[in-house]
């Protein structure tokens, strides 16, 4: 392996980590999501070519947050998603089985747990294994009810986001400088003053039901179940027959909502899952 390639990898790792730290600390954005992903992909390709992975490479990490507070281990791991930019790969992965497409919301992931109908804790994703307990801020976040009708043990993963409209309003009224809604949401959850957090208009949108005592083996029905409990879950569409044409058709529908500024919340892609949760787990 040439020293030039190794030095290039060191530079790429430093750039990616610096940009990621700024992103998660709510500081000014150093590169766009597209630029970060492109550089990440280049680094990953170099790692595969050389067989070398530097110790601090972002390819070895799960995205984390820098929220201060009591750390807590997750009951169920909250790991990163695999990425692709090619619909053909989605078609191959689907294997003809029904799939769902939903937004990959661009905010801060929170894991919310209920026991016996009452909210028991709210924890940031952190590194996927350990997050920060921010239950004390739950009443300042829209979409996290303190009580629900389900009396068993329930674990839900969702995204804390701020709409473009609320972001622009807050920046205009406060005069504070934030690069985007995601940075404002992330920075807001580090605050100790709950009244200040309320001013940020943070909404929590569930995107997956991690655990329920109810036996629900369909991802779509699990989402319906959360809606019946009163949660406003992420927008999604089912593709019963995931041919390339059908996949492209649904992707185009979602894309137009971004292009035409119809979607109120920031997103950084789409998430694709099997409807059959047992098959997905296997």
Can you describe what's shown?
The protein has 282 residues and is an alpha+beta fold. It folds into two domains: 3-60, Helix Hairpins (Orthogonal Bundle); 77-281, D-amino Acid Aminotransferase, Chain A, domain 1 (2-Layer Sandwich), CATH 3.30.470. The protein is built from nine helices and nine strands. It has helices spanning 3-24, 33-50, 87-94, 164-174, 181-188, 194-198, 219-228, 244-259, 277-281; strands spanning 71-73, 99-105, 108-115, 118-124, 130-132, 153-161, 203-212, 236-239, 267-274. The strands form three sheets. Strands 4-3-6-7 form a four-stranded antiparallel β-sheet. Strands 8-2-9 form a three-stranded antiparallel β-sheet. Strands 1-5 form a two-stranded antiparallel ribbon. The longest helix is centred in the first third of the chain and has 22 residues, at 3-24. The mean pLDDT is 86.
Largest sheet: 4 strands, antiparallel
Strand content: 15-25%
Uncertain regions spanning at least 5 consecutive residues: none
Mean pLDDT: 86
Structural class: alpha+beta
């Amino acid at each position: 392996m040439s020293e030039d390639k190794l030095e290039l990898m060191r530079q790429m790792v430093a750039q990616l980590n610096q940009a990621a730290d700024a992103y998660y600390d709510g500081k000014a954005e150093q590169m766009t999501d597209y630029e970060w992903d492109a550089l990440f992909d280049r680094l990953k390709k170099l790692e595969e070519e050389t067989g070398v992975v530097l110790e601090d490479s972002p390819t070895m990490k799960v995205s984390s947050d820098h929220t201060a507070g009591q750390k807590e281990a997750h009951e169920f791991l909250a790991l990163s998603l695999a990425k692709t930019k090619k619909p053909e790969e989605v078609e191959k992965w689907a294997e003809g089985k029904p799939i769902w497409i939903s937004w990959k919301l661009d905010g801060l992931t929170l894991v919310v747990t209920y026991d016996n109908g009452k909210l028991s804790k709210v924890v940031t994703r952190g590194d996927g294994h350990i997050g920060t307990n921010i239950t004390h801020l739950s009443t300042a976040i829209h979409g996290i009810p303190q009580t629900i009708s389900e009396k068993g043990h329930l674990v839900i993963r969702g995204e804390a986001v701020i709409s473009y409209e609320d972001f622009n309003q807050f920046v205009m009224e406060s005069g504070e400088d934030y690069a985007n809604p995601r940075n404002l949401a992330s920075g807001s959850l580090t605050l100790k003053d709950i009244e200040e957090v309320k001013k940020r208009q943070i909404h929590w949108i569930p995107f997956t039901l991690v655990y329920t005592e109810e036996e629900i083996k369909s991802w779509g029905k699990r989402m319906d179940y959360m809606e019946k409990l009163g949660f406003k879950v992420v927008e999604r569409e089912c593709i019963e027959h995931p041919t390339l044409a059908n996949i492209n058709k649904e992707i185009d529908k979602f894309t137009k909502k971004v292009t035409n500024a119809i979607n109120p919340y920031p997103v950084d892609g789409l998430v694709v899952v099997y409807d059959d949760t047992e098959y997905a787990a296997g």
